[in-house]
């Protein structure tokens, strides 16, 4: 099965193209205050090293906007200015070199203000993200409607205003704080417009369950071909957001970042410490730039040989020894104690 | 949005009903060797305390089968015997009081053997899981077919054999080691038979990406209404499998286990240490038996008041203070330093 992606308009953010047939782009957000330039730059470097392609930064006052300018000069990663409440901060951010502006229709909605921002975006030739959140969406319907419809209707109304100013350099996001509303909102908007979609669940809660919420919502949408860029929001270090995003895209075979590890959950049949081996091996592998090959580390003879054969390199463990497979063929017995070295040697070939 | 579940036959495993309109059941597997009875019992207790409803145990020889009998006598959780290669172990496990037998069609496939096992299951009135795995599925097709079809065809052939012996007390699983094959296989089998489906991805690799793979595959299927019981396979402590399973079911609103926490990812706007607050709060809350209410902990005024209003209890933080919301209404200002105590007090009401 290959995912049949819904093809949207291509929008460029700095040197990164979003939409069309471009690979799904990974974004995250700096969590330090913009004014703390050195901390922001450190976080951007960490995000970039982890695989983040676009970084967003909250601009909450003119001080932040000035800091944004200094930050922009010292980083090559495309920078997005996150603006709420005050449209003049968006104008400043454009002047400071932002690669994209995110406006929240929930708190910047006056036509006159939108017009001024759009005019600045046009001159600077940078795109706009119309970024809605369930926590700030405006209720402009007279009758009670559900959250997905609220988000979609609000987005469509805003798109209409922006399009009336002859601007189509747009990316859309409709983040709800639960999986079901998020999935429904994106499914609806995907059918109604051709702008690329920035996927995310907002306010996901504690990190582990947050990663699970995001995986389900983003995973389900991406499986349906919906989504051009993703941000996994976690109440955690932003680097963790990038790891989660990479794992989601890898699981769906939309992107490849390094070796894919297949390993059994272990059970009473397993006679080696596979949990530790896999955990250590993953840490070692993730810090290296390696080809996206498939490595199977299996604890017994039930599914071990089968998965090991399917992988590029695999070991199916028995009592103490394992049987090494390469490209579908059994090569030789290897001892458990030395198998990590053997794997690393094979990987580096 | 409420998930429209596909209604399957109801199968009972001990006192737990799987299928029909029953809530999705959480399973896991003991990772200790059966012969190590005290370790197995300890793991079963931990799994049960975590929320696991059915536990599986590998029976790899007659010694394990004897141990199974002793274990069964000392636990109230339904126990499933995991059998491979030797059908006589299944017969022994039935005698030892197993609540379900799992057979793998990849390594127990002779009609005569299946007939003997089915006959024992009938007498004992316990069900059979026909559990296929991509690592051990038999290739009985002359032409090349993809993994999902291999799993589905193999399952259907086995079901036919078992049904010919007038036995329909069946649960099916078709686990592949990647998300796409797993989703496709289950989608197909769901249309072709009315037996309840046990969902899982096999050999998921390192714990974090494994949880993400499982979340996507199980999440996408459950969203489509497919799946009656789940097991999240992780190369990790089995208790973690139960936490992941609970988070998946909660995210989809298929089950509720305790307070749902909504919290923002934080950004440059957040002036309190929300990451630590949420992490500590979740730990404290998860050890208590509390009602499944919604708690929002938000770092700023952008989406904070909105999410806090939607929750049963919420705090939207500003500089140092937060605004406490209860049932959609702002109640009073609370200091960051004392907010954990306030939250716990409200939760325990």
List the helices and strands and how they pair.
The structure is a homodimer of 349-residue chains.
Chain A: E1 11-13, E2 16-18, E3 25-29, H1 37-50, E4 54-58, H2 62-73, E5 79-83, H3 87-95, E6 100-103, H4 111-124, E7 128-133, H5 147-164, E8 170-175, H6 179-192, E9 198-199, H7 207-223, E10 229-230, H8 238-251, E11 260-263, H9 274-286, E12 294-298, H10 304-310, E13 313-317, E14 321-326, E15 329-335, H11 339-348
Parallel strand pairs in A: 3-4, 3-10, 4-5, 5-6, 6-7, 7-8, 9-10, 11-12, 12-13
Antiparallel strand pairs in A: 1-2, 13-14, 14-15
Helix pairs in contact in A: 1-2, 1-8, 2-3, 3-4, 5-6, 6-7, 7-8
As a percent range, the share of helical residues of chain A equals 40-55%
Q: Can you write the helix and strand succession of chain A as a string?
A: EEEHEHEHEHEHEHEHEHEHEHEEEH
Largest interface: A-B, 91 and 91 residues
pLDDT under 50 segments of chain A (min length 5)?
A: none
Tell me what portion of residues of chain A adopts beta-strand conformation: 15-25%
How are the strands of the largest sheet of chain A arranged?
8-7-6-5-4-3-10-9
The tally of helices of chain A reads 11
Account of the protein in words:
The structure is a homodimer of 349-residue chains. With 349 residues, chain A is α/β, with parallel strands linked by helices. Helices cover 41% and strands 19% of the residues of chain A. At the A-B interface, strand 4, helix 6, helix 7, helix 8 and strand 11 of A face strand 4, helix 6, helix 7, helix 8 and strand 11 of B.
Key features of this structure:
homodimer; 15 strands; elongated; five-stranded mixed sheet; 349 residues; alpha/beta; 11 helices
């Amino acid at each position: 099965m290959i995912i049949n992606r819904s093809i949207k308009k291509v929008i460029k953010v700095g040197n990164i193209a979003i939409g069309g047939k471009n690979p799904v782009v990974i974004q995250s957000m700096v969590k330090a205050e913009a004014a703390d330039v050195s901390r922001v730059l450190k976080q951007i470097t960490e995000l970039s090293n982890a695989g983040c392609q676009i970084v967003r930064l909250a601009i909450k006052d003119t001080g932040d906007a000035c800091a944004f300018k200094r930050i922009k000069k010292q980083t090559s990663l495309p920078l997005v200015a996150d603006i709420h409440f005050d449209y003049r901060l968006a104008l400043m951010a454009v002047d400071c070199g932002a690669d994209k502006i995110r406006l929240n229709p929930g708190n910047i909605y006056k036509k006159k203000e939108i017009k001024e921002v759009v005019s600045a975006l046009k001159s600077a030739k940078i795109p706009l993200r119309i970024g809605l959140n369930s926590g700030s969406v405006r209720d402009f319907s007279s009758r009670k409607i559900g959250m997905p419809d609220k988000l979609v209707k609000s987005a469509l109304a805003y798109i209409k205003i922006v399009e009336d100013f002859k601007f189509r350099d747009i990316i859309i996001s409709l983040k709800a704080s639960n999986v079901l509303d998020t999935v429904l909102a994106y499914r609806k908007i995907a059918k109604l417009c051709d702008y690329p979609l920035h996927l995310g669940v907002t306010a996901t809660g504690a990190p582990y369950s947050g990663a699970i919420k995001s995986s389900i919502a983003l995973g389900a949408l991406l499986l349906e071909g919906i989504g051009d860029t993703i941000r996994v929001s976690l109440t955690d270090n932003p680097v963790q957001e990038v790891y989660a995003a990479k794992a989601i895209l890898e699981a769906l075979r939309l992107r490849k970042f390094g070796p894919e590890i297949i390993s059994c959950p272990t059970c009473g049949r397993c006679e080696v410490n596979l949990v530790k081996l896999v955990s250590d091996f993953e840490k070692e592998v993730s810090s290296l730039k390696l080809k996206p090959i498939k490595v199977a580390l299996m604890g017994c003879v039930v599914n071990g040989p089968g998965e090991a054969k399917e992988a590029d390199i695999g070991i199916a463990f028995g009592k103490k020894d394992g049987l090494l497979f390469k490209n579908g063929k059994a090569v030789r017995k290897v001892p458990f104690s030395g198998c990590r070295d053997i794997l690393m040697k094979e990987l580096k070939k």
